């Protein structure tokens, strides 16, 4: 087993930098998820670990070895791709054996490894079929199996579930998590789906435009986002943002359609910053609708209901307060009517405050 370390890594295509000064340590046996929007550089980072992309600057270590100049076949890494990358003319057994044959693995050992992987993934009855005879979920299991038969030091997953339907994605997500716990292999998993990131990773690394924004456990990133981008990207529904200006020496946030006090615990961070433009962030669960009990100090806000999304066990309400939108969850039997005026309350103890210009966290 081995950890993976990025030190000052950059990747440029011509004049365009897609990875910028990346410093990141993935611990031995850790499940690390790289998450971010399309084009943020997460798949490029994965391909550099695998040796499929050259490194423009910096170093990547696998264990104690710098692998910048090491050929892909010698890096002791297995990668699972988004499109499965199975050989259509080969049987499932032959697909699983292919990498082992390239390494001249003895036949008895090859059979043992393939049968073991097939049993773990529940594809033993499928070994004589061709990929076209399998469902999407079965093909994905084969792709994972082809990686684990090699018993590599590091697994790399590049958005492996994006081609599956919603129900199958949840099932395969659980299977990959159980597999990683069983094998205890260092795993780096790339996704643009923040729900996958939150549910799967020991830690998550959020990227944007090639820059690392924050690294931490899912709960750390959710509860203490480093900036406004992370705050809105992580969480479903996303965090509500309301814009305002600090008044009264940094004790009051004044917006277009509201004003409320800065919580006592945040006042030291903004003391004396009169007139500073800020973004106040509130998670949907901290917007309290009429008739529900709030926790701690609250501030009232008036809004008009614009959209009600019915999800079965709950509804998601979108309401307009001046130029800002408030989104919150509600019991389906208490859903407000579209166009109704709403008197909600914001739980101030769970407020997040960001500088409107730099978008960095203030508290």
Overview of the molecule:
With 363 residues, the protein is α+β, with helices and mostly antiparallel strands. It is 25% helix and 34% strand. The protein has helices at 42-50, 92-102, 107-121, 136-148, 166-183, 194-200, 218-223, 228-233, 267-270; strands spanning 4-13, 16-26, 31-35, 57-62, 65-66, 77-80, 154-158, 186-191, 203-208, 211-216, 240-247, 252-255, 259-261, 277-282, 287-288, 298-310, 315-321, 324-330, 341-347, 352-355. The chain has a six-stranded mixed β-sheet with strand order 6-7-8-3-9-10, with helices on both faces. A five-stranded antiparallel β-sheet has the order 13-12-11-14-20. The protein is elongated and about 75 Å long.
End-to-end separation in angstroms reads 39 Å
Physical arrangement of strands within the biggest beta sheet: 6-7-8-3-9-10
For the residues shown, what is the average pLDDT?
Answer: 91
Give the C-alpha Rg: 24 Å
The portion of residues forming beta strands comes to 25-35%
List segments where confidence is low: pLDDT < 50 over at least 5 consecutive residues. Answer: none
Largest sheet: 6 strands, mixed
Label the structural class. Answer: alpha+beta
Q: Any idea what the shape is? A: elongated
Percent of residues in helical segments? 10-25%
Q: Quick one: how many beta strands?
A: 20
What is the string of SSEs from the N terminus onward?
EEEHEEEHHHEHEHEEHHEEEHEEEEEEE
- Discrete helix count: 9
